[in-house]
Amino acid sequence: MKPSFTKIGEDSPSDRLGTQCSPRTKSQARVAQTSVKPGARETPDLMRTRDQMRTRGWITWCFWLLFGLAAVARSEAPAGTWTRPDPERFPFVYRWSDTCHVYVLRDGDASLLIDLGDGSVLAQLGQIGVSRIDWVLFTHHHREQCQGAPLLEPWRRRGTRVAAPEAERALFESPLSFRRMRVRLNDPFTIHGSSFVRPPVDPIPLDRTFKTMDQIVWRGHEIWCVDTRGHSPGGMSYLIKHGGRWVAFSGDAMLEGGKIHAWPDSEWDYGFAAGVWALANAAGQLEGYQPAWLFPSHGNAIPEPASALAAFQQKLFRFERLLVRGYPVKTFSAAAQDPVSRPTEVHHVWRVTPHIFKFRGPEFYPNFYLIMSKDGRGLAVDCGLLATNFLDTALEGMRSKLGLKTIDAVIPTHMHGDHFLQAPHLQARWGTKLWGLDRMVAVCERPEDFDYCAPIQAYGTGVDRIRFDRTFASGERFQWGGWDFTVEWMPGQTEFALCVHGMIDGKKVIFTGDNLFGDPRDPEQTGHEAMVAHNSAILEEGYIVGAELLKRLQPDLILGGHSYVMPEPAAFVERYRDWAYKMRDAFRELIAEEDYRLGFDPFWVRAEPYRARVLPGKVVKLKLGVRNFHSRPQRHSIRVRCGEGLEALDPVLEGELQSEERRTFELEVRANSAAKPGVRLVAFDVTLDGRRYGERFDAVVEIIDPGTSGSEGHRK
């Protein structure tokens, strides 16, 4: 079919959709970005203004063109408006804004859409003279890009086709495969069980997928498909060359100012920066095209973005050096794991101080310390990543050779399952009690109610939860074995963590879990462990708090998780503290939000339970937590959308939160009486103070067969 793009200077439907301007801005608006509300019409005055503009000299024209491109064209239009990013050079490109930017390429009455948002664009295409959609190309799978897909069905029946990156085909077509009722460490697209993908509520069938460096020809125009994964695991940019210059429809590869849209989308591993590397590689690819424009899914369009893309890569290089562990985690870690302990007469049992014991071996990183009193009683801190036969043999050796008589209690330092996997075994064999911090109770006793990393069920040992026999408030003291101990909240790697400290064998000893590891003697090491937002790890409520606590306590000996022993740590703690603030500032610089936490925390809207089960015809109750990070009131509107067979009894939740307030709202979801068994998604479409975030958050509800206990077991 022959292309019929509107040429520069010709009348087009968008020319007839003018915007009211003051006299001194009319000329700017005519050659720069046009922003109009649907239904606006040209007035006679604007017709005369346009005709006058065409008679002006080329110098005046160029002046206003440059001024307009720099000062006006980049501005982000409000939701529900049409804009034309560059009507002079790229007259066929239109933009609609709702949950994301939807770019419409127009050729006569035909169009190609890049992303779909909430689908509201479909009802407005007639405003720009479009009656047909040949293709919808998705840059990536995130719900705010495609949540309007159900509205496409009438168009698809008339011939509209849908395409997306091949690397994300399964996320579009089988989205429920990526939400499980019982997670495992190696589930795809998760960080130890916590999902970093946001697939659509219902499947979206694809007519075509694109692999790296594919192309599609649309009405005589080649569209190059460039792999720009980073903001999502298979993200793609679509590039078109027109008039000798490229334009890139880049999804969320980079936003204006060298920013990213949402950090959790690029957090693909346990703090090893694979997503950061991919973001930098994507920016390098796009820079090489020297595009005239970068058209992202969110924020302002970016003119002549090559220098910004280069600067973005440098920012990511610096960010990666801060992010990845503050010690040589995969190279020299075993060499400096413990310069203090010495072996005892019991195989693999080492003595840290006269009354503190641990396990040690080559490339061996278990979680276990045992404080042994003079009368042979034991108090364990953590107990995980140990084979039970190994543990039994070692403890029997300590009984026969070191005088161990009982193990009174075990204190897990934080919520991750690898720190208490064998605690139930100690309970059964030694009658050991479980003690913990009050903040840790819910996530350890009901881990399936949350979407955090490394819950105990993810290890697949058959232990799905633990119950505490005693809990402590932060700052609470207790006496045991002749020593005084204090339990304190010590977040860092995760919000749900504690430390235990006291004077043992003449030293101020502190057990810190997985907050910091390394060799205090190395001035290059900052000691921080994994920086993972999916752990619930906001810096101001995590590593910064932990670092300030360590500075205040001034310990002589730090006993970390995974057998790390760190003596004389004062300077080490100061470097750790300095890193925590720098890491916070780096996120502030990287994330495109007024308050970085809105783009960092995956849980500022959170359903509890995150995973729930319901019988057909019955109702399940959820609590939806909403958080305001701002120091001012915040209004919110949350629309609830349920998968097939479910309905929210109150589908819109609205309210106002005061400064830095958290609040919980009740939500009821009913399964239809004829609903088929299986897992469904419930998505939350969030608007804050008029800004639409789309369906960023979700919950998982399984409709269970009345004759069974659920596909993966029903919790009693």
Describe this structure in words.
The strands form seven sheets. The chain has an eight-stranded mixed β-sheet. It has an eight-stranded mixed β-sheet with strand order 17-18-19-20-21-22-23-24. Strands 11-12-13-14-15-16 form a six-stranded mixed β-sheet. It has 14 helices and 39 strands. It is α+β, with helices and mostly antiparallel strands. The protein starts with 22 loop residues before the first helix and ends in a 13-residue tail after the last strand.
Question: How would you describe this structure in keywords?
Answer:
single chain, eight-stranded mixed sheet, disordered C terminus, globular, 20% helix, 716 residues
Shape: globular
Q: First CA to last CA: what distance?
A: 62 Å
Strand content: 25-35%
Could you estimate the helical fraction of the residues in percent? 10-25%
In a few lines, what is going on in this structure?
The protein has 716 residues and is α+β, with helices and mostly antiparallel strands. The chain is 20% helix and 30% strand. It is built from 14 helices and 39 strands.
Write the layout of secondary structure elements.
Blueprint: H1 23-31, E1 34-36, H2 44-55, H3 58-71, E2 82-84, E3 93-97, E4 101-107, E5 110-114, E6 132-137, H4 143-146, H5 153-157, E7 161-165, H6 169-173, E8 190-191, E9 194-195, E10 208-210, E11 215-218, E12 221-227, E13 236-242, E14 245-251, H7 274-288, E15 293-296, E16 302-303, H8 306-323, E17 342-343, E18 349-353, E19 356-359, E20 367-372, E21 377-384, H9 388-401, E22 406-411, H10 423-430, E23 433-437, H11 441-445, E24 470-472, E25 476-480, E26 483-489, E27 498-504, E28 507-513, H12 543-553, E29 557-560, E30 565-567, H13 570-590, H14 597-600, E31 605-608, E32 611-614, E33 619-627, E34 634-642, E35 646-648, E36 652-657, E37 662-671, E38 678-688, E39 691-703
Parallel strand pairs: 5-6, 6-7, 7-10, 14-15, 21-22, 22-23, 23-24, 28-29, 32-39
Antiparallel strand pairs: 1-2, 2-3, 3-4, 4-5, 8-9, 11-12, 12-13, 13-14, 15-16, 17-18, 18-19, 19-20, 20-21, 25-26, 26-27, 27-28, 29-30, 31-33, 33-37, 34-36, 34-38, 35-37, 38-39
Helix pairs in contact: 1-3, 7-8, 8-13, 12-13
